[in-house]
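Run log, item B.
One chain of 103 residues. Sequence copied directly from the ordering sheet:
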Amino acid sequence: MINVEARLKKEGYVTDFRVTEDNRLCTLKGDKSYAVEEVRIVDFYRFEGETNPDDMSILYAIECTDGTRGTISNSYGPYADQNIDAFLKEVEDMGKNLDKSDK
């Protein structure tokens, strides 16, 4: 995961994000926040723990409408942060809806 994060930082994904209680994506510095419709998932990477398959995580490469690019990570499965999961599912669903309307 460290290698992927380093590569993404070289590609300009330098901001670390979190999801707030009021369902917004926020920079860790707290200087910017974004609604679901202002966020796009560019890519994601899944990782499994070497000694324990339950140690799974997922890293998302995110781009916002103002050009801010960064990452957010979450556990995968039963240990996942539900706020992050819910927010990113909404982002993903919006992308699917946009794709359908273009056809």
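Observations after the first pass:
- The two ends are 36 Å apart (CA to CA).
- The helical segments are 2-10, 82-101.
Flagged for discussion on Thursday.
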